[in-house]
Amino acid sequence: MWLGNARKAFETSVQLFLLKRAKRIPFICPVCGYNGAFLDRKAETGMRFYAECPRCHALERHRLQWLVLQELQKSMSLSQLRVLHMAPEPFFEARLRRQCRSYITADISGKNVDIREDLTKLSFPSDSFDLVYASHVLEHIQDDWSALHEIRRVLSVGGIAILPVPIIAEATVEYGAPNPREVFHVRAPGIDYFDRYRAVFKRVQIFESASFDSRFQVWIHEDRSRLPSPRMPKRPPMTGRRHSDYIPVCYV
Q: What is the DSSP string of 184-215?
């Protein structure tokens, strides 16, 4: 573990040195406040540019989600909310646990969380939470309709759910079975995937990359025209080299 962390830190420092010499565009990480060059990441599409904050390792989606959380706090206070966080990101968990009225982390594996839970059949009573947060979870769940109805059930009146998925197709493509080479995704969601949310929740508000200042770098810079690939045979190609990310906020 120590050697792995040391190696990653060394590789990051080398990448940053090279990026600074290349005079790469500086960005600001809204999660940790870092100001400078962001790291590129290898991807199935070849390379994803300006993807990772070198200090806290937040990716594009994490920075966008954090900005959305800050926006939502203009009309709500985390200190008043009972929160269920599914498959929590470590740097979000540390911050949210301090701020929320109550905060429970859960995952189907039960590893490094407070409780083991299956999102399609939650053990909690109805009206248990004011916020359910599940980022990049539903694309792994075959029976996503049951998961959506369970999220709706455990939310209180006036509660919200933040349920982003990776938008990686023009229209949603169902795989039929999990793809182990794609972190067991069962679908490639398109923007139409959020119609499923609208069928379950009273209102769905969509934030996107263009909703926030470009200095935070919340766009996905990658060439998806190379898809499908042997590892991702059902992922369709998408045109363009800069793609928007989307954060749906669902209201009960």
A: TEEEE--GGGHHHHHTTSSEEEEEEGGGS-GG
